[in-house]
Amino acid sequence: MVTIEPEAISRPTTPDELITIHSADVWRFVQAQISHREDAEDIVMETFAAAFRDFRKVAHADNQRHWLLAVARRKVADRHRRKYRRAEEPIAHAEGYGSTQTPSTDQLITREALSRVAEDQREVLILKYVNGLSTEEIGQVIRRSVAATNSLLQRGRESLRAALATHGENV
User: Fold this and answer.
1) What is the value of pTM for the model shown?
2) Residue 50, helix vs strand vs coil
C-alpha cells in the first residue's frame, strides 16, 4: 500500500485547507492520549486555533503536520497538568474520529495497557503506530535527537509489552 504524505498532496494556503488536510492526524494523536471525547475535541480545536492565530508561521513551516502535532503535544501536556476531569463518557466508547464503531476487546486491552506506560513513551508509541510517523519525524515533533527518540521508542515498547503481560496474568 502506498502512503501519500499530506505535504505531498498539497500545501494548505487557507485555514480551511489546513483543517481538511491535517485534522485526522491531529485527532488520532490527541484522542489516543485523552480519555474524554469532549476534552480531546477541545484540544484539537485549541491546536487549530493556535495555527489560525499564527497562520503565516504555520504556512511557512517546513512540515505543517509536524508543527501541528507539536502544538497538539503541548496542549495535551497542558491538559494533563491541569488534572481536569469531567464525569462523562470516555473516548473508548467512540474509538475513531466520527466513528460509531464499538472498539474491539483487543483495542480496549491495548488502550488500558498503554495508559500504564510513561507519558513520554506513550506519546512516541502513538506517533509511531497511530500516526505512522518515522523515527526522524517523531524526533522533530518531540524535539529530541533520532538516537534519543529510538531509545524512547524501545523503552516504550518494553513497557507496553510488560503492561500487556500483566494484563494477561490478571485475566
Assistant:
1) 0.59
2) helix
